[in-house]
Amino acid sequence: MSKIAVVYWSGTGNTEAMAEAVAEGARGKGAEAVLIPAASFDAGQMDEFDAIAFGCPSMGVEQLEESEFEPMFTACASGLQGRRIALFGSYGWGDGEWMRSWETRCADDGALLVCDSVICNEAPDDEALDACSALGAALA
């Protein structure tokens, strides 16, 4: 059984709902999926998991949340080489530039993105939640 971390930051609950759908998708494929708020995760935990889904909404000028998520993710960057990951998050404005930049950053760090990232505008609808579930299944 694979063990999947679903590491996320959520200010309004939108990305948290997405994280829950990711975890359910992984569990549906027989994986053990653990939901972990970004403030409770650090790079030292990465080796405990077979794959990691990272979730963060777009903040400010299409960037990752700066006080908790960004420092945690930056600390994890050196451990992304060859690691199976997936990305997801919500946004309220823009066109998803933050996700494209994040994907490039992960690829530059050598991460293996196992599927297309999932983004949704504001609260996730059924289509976005289904896509998150599929993302979790792909990690499993």
TrEMBL record:
Keyword Nucleotide-binding: no
SUPFAM superfamilies referenced in this protein's UniProt entry, alphabetically: Flavoproteins
Domain of life: Bacteria
UniProt keyword annotations, A-Z: Electron transport, Flavoprotein, FMN, Transport
Cofactor: FMN
Domain Flavodoxin-like: residue ranges: 4-140
Keyword Ubl conjugation appears in the UniProt entry: no
GO molecular function: electron transfer activity; FMN binding; oxidoreductase activity, acting on NAD(P)H
Pfam families: Flavodoxin_1
Gene3D superfamilies with a match to the protein in the record: 3.40.50.360
Purpose: Low-potential electron donor to a number of redox enzymes.
Similarity comment: Belongs to the flavodoxin family.
Protein name, UniProt field: Flavodoxin
